[in-house]
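Appendix B, record 7
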Amino acid sequence: MATRLLALVFVAATVVACTGSSAPTLAGLTSTTISIDNNELTVAVADTPQARGRGLMGITDLGEFDGMLFVFDTDVETGFWMKDTLIPLDIAFFDADGLAVDRLRMEPCTADPCPTYNAAGPYRFAVEALAGDLSFVGEGSVLALLDE
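Structure tokens (predicted):
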């Protein structure tokens, strides 16, 4: 009887430990304030290869953030994908001068192969936000980094 009770306690503790883990959050990331066409957004900053690779994977709630700013050291043409990303997103791409290059809607991907979303041209910055939140971005839009 004691062995069964001990086994039950072990199983219960394991279940609680596994289900008690919280969903990924953006806490701990550097944040900044940006402006796109005079619309201010507080964003988490992804400025390392690791942070850019992780992006918003697994995130279901942006918390205090309006989105994520991806910062590259040079102009890039890399595509984005939605592997393990759980929420639909808008993405807007901007060149080194902050001028809009493109804006796309991206849908979560649950099965491989996941589509890649590519900007119309080279870009230096990308902003991801909840689907619809960047609908105002278009030709002539300008990104400004306010915390610099």
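Remarks on this record: The two ends are 66 Å apart (CA to CA). The CA atoms of residues 26 and 63 lie 8 Å apart.
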